[in-house]
Write a structure and sequence with these properties.
The complex is a heterotrimer of chains A (283), B (331) and C (334).
Chain A (H helix, E strand, L loop, with lengths): L6 H9 L1 H23 L32 H37 L1 H16 L2 H11 L4 H10 L3 H14 L3 H8 L4 H9 L4 H24 L11 H8 L8 H28 L7
Helix pairs in contact in A: 1-12, 2-3, 2-12, 3-4, 3-6, 3-7, 3-10, 4-7, 7-10, 10-11, 10-12, 11-12
Chain B lengths: L6 E12 L2 E13 L4 E5 L6 H8 L9 E9 L2 E2 L5 H7 L4 E4 L3 H4 L6 H12 L4 H14 L5 H4 L9 H12 L6 E5 L7 H18 L2 E6 L2 H7 L2 E6 L2 E7 H6 L4 H9 L52 E4 L2 E3 L4 H5 L1
Parallel strand pairs in B: 3-8, 3-9, 6-7, 7-8
Antiparallel strand pairs in B: 1-2, 1-4, 4-5, 9-10, 10-12, 11-12
Helix pairs in contact in B: 4-5, 4-7, 5-7
Chain C lengths: L2 E14 L8 E14 L3 E5 L6 H8 L7 E6 L2 E2 L5 H8 L2 E4 L13 H11 L5 H11 L16 H13 L5 E5 L7 H18 L2 E6 L2 H7 L2 E6 L2 E7 H6 L4 H9 L49 E4 L2 E3 L23
Helix pairs in contact in C: 3-4, 3-5, 4-5, 5-6
The chains are: A mainly alpha (283), B alpha/beta (331), C alpha/beta (334).
Chain lengths: 283, 331, 334
């Protein structure tokens, strides 16, 4: 699947400054979270009782320490790893499922398409967070299970997007042209339809990463997600609740991290939407 | 036709700024429109004909990417310079427009009678009842059968031809002095096109409005125009009264265009290949140097036509042509 | 001359609407069309929107399942042929679309688009045959690497024609192939189609609403109105002596780029009736200036009115005007 960002699309995208900011932030966050811990003299789980509640910029610990004297920067980085891994993998699984369901439903239509799409609608009726918590109560918490849970609640919008795209694209002349030549359904879907639905799929994927990061934070904040001592931005926030007045940075830093990551992905998604939409004329 | 022209466009230029550089959509266009006259503006895609109509109506996007210069004097007032609130009063009032696609120009959720009545109320001080009466009269005027009963129909209940009649009724609601019709029959079937052209002609006789009729179809031009302005690559390349233009075109582009349309009298004769104009319509981002038509022109002289851009010059008291060689070619 | 395509009483009805409490209705897009397309001819199918001309083209290519009647291609009944059985026939019949932009996949290069018939039909010799096809339609080798949006409308239509012809089909269905093009480009594409027809011995079904183009390109013309044929004749005969009032009106309404050819226009009243609820007799009766009560009783059959000239009008006693009439072309308006 080639993204085929043409030169004007790329320029359009770059002009979208917020999107460029988002993309840069995501790259920095990813590099920081995955390489940072190797450069840092502190470990995220090392307890230092002599140095509890050190405020940021007050000593060796740049972003201070938490209630057990663990280095906040190291914990933010490790938590970021969890968040980004959850975000990307949940997105990838959700996308795969959504594209499959959407392409099949959109291409075949009829009773199969109707049944699939009514199922999508039914799942969409549940408020995501309750669905997530209900499912989380049933399985043991952990990285893999949280990924699968989030993926299970985030494939439906992609399925709807792909279904709509495929349904309209299959009526287009170039799909008819393939039909006139005797092409098989699979060939028409793979060669003619999906490449033309890439733009909305990519946009949805980006926004879904943001959503997955946010959902992971919710669930971990509520205590059903990633379990301590493994840090995640969500469970760090959970931890920080009781120290909100005495050590506000414990809450503010992971909160900022979540906000930064989520808004970056959202900006990127908006920018890609504009850049990949050929109907958007550059100004 | 006496007195000053109702519309006098002087040196109109429209440029779009895009990432690929500046695109001159319309370059230094001047023309006049007399009272009661029909001027056909003919051109292909990229000729600037539709941009011209949007510029006159001030319907181009108002941002820094679009630059409009020049003057468009409607009874002495410059449409391009007056403040927006005043323009709003003129738009749909003294100058009005009909578009190509009657479905997208009508609001699908409002009955057509109410839409016409609304257009009436925008410019005339009438109460709701009187506006509705006036709407019924207008719908009847544009030939909608049983107009009073169709008032409550929604646009999707009407055929394409009927929707275009509704659009015309709205455009006429304030007795405009100038009607700009931008390809108003292009989306319609030929028998319906004939109806609408006939309607426009009859309405014009009745109201004395002047019409700028924008089209790519030379058959439609022959049918409706008093005078013709031919545009190519954002420029006026020829301007002449109807009959002289068709019988003795001066600009090679006009001549080529006229020759390339198959003639009905020769139907079934297989008179060999059509005399087509070679090449492609120029991309406004990469206009050829010199005469914009020279790469496709059978009469172009290397070193002359690709070097100097010809100016629009008077060929006689009623005609203008933009060609370096028109005198030689006419001889 | 033998027929390459034979249509017999072909019908295609589309079910529409219908719900819990509403009866399903049928749109009779094609309602009993009998027509032969002779080998090596250009037959034009003319009509306005809703006439069913496009549906006939798509039915011949078996892009839709006919409701009843038969379609024969080269003697073989293909009316209800399955997908697999159609596959080898597909290389022998191809389609050129109206909109040269929509018919090309915007994400593929010209080379890939023109090569796709080879890939689908499992043939080799890709690159050279693509280049050959591009040259055949007047494009250059360097166009192969371009994307559709980098080409002009006329060039895109040439790509569409190259794709349709790379397998050397016998039948080409051209569905309004020039009506989306600029006026100065239309003549180029018309010339190209005529040239390719001669060179490759093609049979072309040319679907169009533009009578001046049709008059130039066709050997024979079939006029459709509301799902039925109303007149079929050799081009010159149809223009000189139209025998159906609808043909007369269509010829009269066609804009002619000659300001002096102001014939008395016949302006039809009203619109084409809804194909959901066609009138019982002649579908044109409601707009026809010659209609009698008998016209509204039963649909008139298409019958021979002169050698090779078929018309579905019961009135033999009327004289219809033609754009070729002596004098008619110079009658002043009004």
């Amino acid at each position: 699947m080639s993204l085929a960002l043409s030169a004007p699309a790329f320029r359009r995208f770059r002009r979208h400054r917020l999107a460029a900011f988002g993309a840069a932030t995501i790259v920095l966050l990813t590099l920081g979270c995955f390489l940072g811990p190797f450069l840092l003299p502190f470990d995220d789980t090392t307890i230092d009782v002599m140095n509890r509640f050190a405020p940021p910029l007050s000593g060796a610990h740049v972003l201070g320490t938490d209630e057990l004297g663990r280095d906040m920067l190291a914990r933010l980085m490790m938590g970021g790893r969890v968040s980004l891994i959850v975000g990307f993998t949940a997105m990838a699984i959700g996308m795969a499922l959504g594209i499959l369901v959407g392409a099949v439903a959109g291409f075949h239509g009829g009773w199969l398409g109707a049944a699939l799409m009514r199922f999508v609608d039914a799942v969409l009726c549940f408020p995501t967070i309750f669905l997530l918590l209900a499912l989380a109560a049933l399985v043991s918490p952990g990285l893999l299970s949280i990924i699968i849970l989030i993926a299970a609640t985030s494939w439906m919008d992609v399925a709807r997007i792909v279904e709509g795209q495929v349904k309209s694209l299959r009526e287009r002349d170039f799909a008819v042209a393939a039909q006139v030549l005797g092409a098989s359904d699979a060939r028409i879907i793979v060669h003619e339809l999906v490449p033309n639905a890439v733009a909305p799929i990519v946009v949805a994927a980006t926004l879904n990463v943001a959503r997955a990061i946010l959902l992971e934070s919710y669930v971990s904040f509520l205590g059903y997600g990633i379990q301590p001592p493994v840090p995640s931005w969500g469970n760090m926030l959970n931890n920080a609740q009781i120290y909100l007045t005495s050590a506000p940075w414990l809450a503010i830093l992971p909160g900022l991290a979540i906000t930064l990551a989520v808004t970056s992905f959202n900006f990127l998604g908006d920018g890609l939407r504009d850049a990949l939409d050929p109907r958007m004329r550059a100004r | 036709m006496s007195g000053a022209p109702i519309l006098d466009v002087r040196n109109l230029s429209v440029r779009f700024r895009t990432e690929g550089g500046d695109v001159p959509a319309v370059s230094d266009l001047s023309f006049t429109l007399d009272r009661g006259e029909t001027l056909a503006v003919v051109g292909e895609s990229g000729s600037g004909k539709s941009v011209t109509s949007l510029a006159l109506m001030r319907l181009l996007p108002k941002d820094s990417a679009v630059t409009v210069t020049g003057q468009a004097l409607l009874e002495g007032r410059d449409l391009l310079a007056i403040p927006e609130p005043e323009m709003r009063k003129l738009r749909g009032g003294a100058i009005s427009m009909v578009f190509q696609e009657p479905m997208t120009s009508l609001n699908p959720t409002t009955p057509v009678g109410a839409q016409v009545a609304e257009a009436v109320q925008l410019h005339r001080d009438l109460d709701r009842r009187a506006a509705r009466e006036e709407a019924a009269r207008l719908l009847d005027l544009v030939g909608i059968p049983a107009a009073r009963q169709r008032m409550d129909d929604y646009p999707h209940h009407l055929s394409g031809g009927m929707r275009q009649r509704v659009m015309i009724a709205m455009a006429l609601s304030c007795d405009p002095g100038v009607l700009i019709a931008d390809e108003p029959t292009t989306a319609l079937d030929v028998t319906i096109q004939a109806q609408i052209l006939d309607l426009l002609k009859r309405l014009q006789e009745r109201t004395g409005m002047a019409v700028v009729f924008i089209t790519h179809n030379l058959g439609v031009v022959a049918e409706i125009a008093d005078r013709v302005l031919v545009m190519y690559g954002g420029r006026a390349v020829e301007q002449a009264p109807l009959r002289p233009l068709f019988s003795r075109p001066l600009m090679p582009y006009t001549a080529g265009l006229l020759r390339s349309v198959p003639r009905m009298e020769l139907a079934g004769r297989r008179a060999g290949p059509l005399p087509a104009i070679p090449g492609n319509v120029p991309d406004p981002r990469h206009m050829p140097p010199g005469c914009v038509f020279h790469p496709r022109c059978a009469h172009h002289q290397p070193g002359r036509c690709d070097a100097a851009a010809p100016v629009l010059e008077a060929a006689d008291e009623a005609r203008e042509v933009r060609c370096l060689r028109w005198r030689e070619l006419a001889a | 001359m033998t027929a390459l395509v034979e249509l017999r009483e072909l019908r295609k009805w589309f079910p529409v609407g219908g719900g819990l409490f509403r009866r399903k209705q049928q749109v009779k897009a094609i309602d009993g069309v009998t027509l032969d397309i002779r080998r090596g001819e250009i037959l034009s199918l003319v009509g306005e929107s809703g006439s069913g001309k496009t549906t006939v083209g798509r039915a011949i290519l078996r892009l839709l399942e006919p409701t009843n009647g038969t379609i024969r291609f080269d003697g073989q009944d293909i009316t209800h042929l399955g997908r697999a059985a159609m596959r080898p026939l597909r290389r022998r019949m191809q389609l050129v679309f109206q909109d040269p932009f929509a018919s090309l996949n915007p994400r593929h290069t010209v080379e890939r688009i023109v090569a796709s018939p080879l890939a689908i039909q499992g043939e080799s010799g890709g690159r050279e045959r693509v280049m050959e096809a591009l040259e055949m339609v007047g494009l250059q080798r360097h166009h192969a690497a371009r994307y559709p949006h980098e080409l002009s409308g006329g060039q895109r239509q040439r790509v569409g024609i190259a794709r349709a012809l790379i397998l050397r089909p016998e039948l080409l269905v051209a569905d309004e192939p020039v009506s989306a093009l600029d006026v100065s480009i239309q003549a180029q594409v018309v010339n190209l189609l005529l040239e390719l027809k001669e060179r490759l011995g093609l049979t072309i079904l040319f679907i169009s609403h533009d009578l001046s183009v049709v008059g130039h390109i066709s050997d024979r013309i079939a006029v459709m109105y509301l799902g039925r044929l109303v007149e079929v004749a050799e081009t010159r005969d149809l223009f000189r002596t139209p025998r159906h009032p609808y043909t007369e009106a269509l010829l009269s309404a066609a804009p002619d780029p000659d300001p002096d050819a102001r014939r008395r226009r016949i302006i039809l009243q009203g619109d084409i009736p809804s194909p959901l609820d066609p009138p019982p007799g002649c579908a044109f009766a409601g707009r026809c200036r010659f209609a009698l009560d008998a016209c509204r009783a039963a649909p008139p059959p298409l019958r021979q009115v002169a050698p090779g000239h078929l018309s579905a009008c019961i009135r033999d006693d009327i004289h219809l005007q033609s754009p070729l009439d002596e004098g008619a072309t110079h009658v002043p308006a009004g």
